[in-house]
């Protein structure tokens, strides 16, 4: 009942409509910060998957060890995920990283990319 009342208030006051508009701008700014940070710090890496949500995929060089890159990034306080965990089968596809930006503040993106840039080359 409480959830329904809260939703009713959001809908009748117009706040529900404002929230998605505001969040689109926030996420667009974060996506831009990520692509610009990559362009500055690792210009040879082409991000993909940006239109699909709140993450990007950064390919690693063929033969790179996803787990080692993730561990090294974590030592630098940067959390990354390997794409291998998202594959349905043990595919020998090139290694890549999944970089989430949906829950990262815009100002934290630049220093995080700078901290792991050497790992992404």
Structural class: mainly alpha
Unreliable residue runs: none
- What is the level-2 CATH architecture name? Alpha-Beta Complex
Distance between the terminal alpha carbons, to the nearest Å?
53 Å
Helix content range: 40-55%
| Number of beta strands | 3
Radius of gyration: 18 Å
Major sheet description: 3 strands, antiparallel
Give the amount of beta strand, in percent. 5-15%
Here the CATH topology equals Aspartate Aminotransferase, domain 1
Oligomer status: single chain
SS element count, helices: 4
CATH superfamily: Aspartate Aminotransferase, domain 1
Order of helices and strands: HHEHEEH
Which strand order spans the largest sheet, edge to edge or round the barrel? 1-3-2
CATH class equals Alpha Beta
Overall pLDDT:
91
Count of separate structural domains: 1
* Global shape: elongated
Helix and strand layout, with pairings?
Elements (H helix, E strand, L loop, with lengths): L1 H12 L1 H27 L13 E5 L6 H10 L5 E2 L13 E5 L5 H15 L1
Antiparallel strand pairs: 1-3, 2-3
Helix pairs in contact: 2-4
């Amino acid at each position: 009942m409480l959830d329904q009342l809260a939703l009713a208030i959001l809908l009748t006051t117009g706040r529900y409509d404002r929230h998605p508009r505001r969040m689109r701008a926030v996420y667009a700014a974060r996506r831009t910060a990520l692509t610009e940070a990559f362009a500055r710090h690792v210009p040879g890496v082409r991000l993909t998957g940006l239109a699909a949500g709140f993450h990007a995929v950064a390919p690693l060089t063929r033969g790179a060890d996803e787990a080692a890159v993730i561990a090294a990034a974590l030592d630098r306080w940067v959390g990354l995920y390997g794409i291998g965990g998202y594959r349905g089968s043990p595919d020998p596809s090139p290694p890549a990283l999944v970089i989430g930006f949906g829950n990262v503040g815009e100002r934290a993106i630049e220093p995080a990319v700078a901290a792991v840039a050497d790992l992404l080359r």
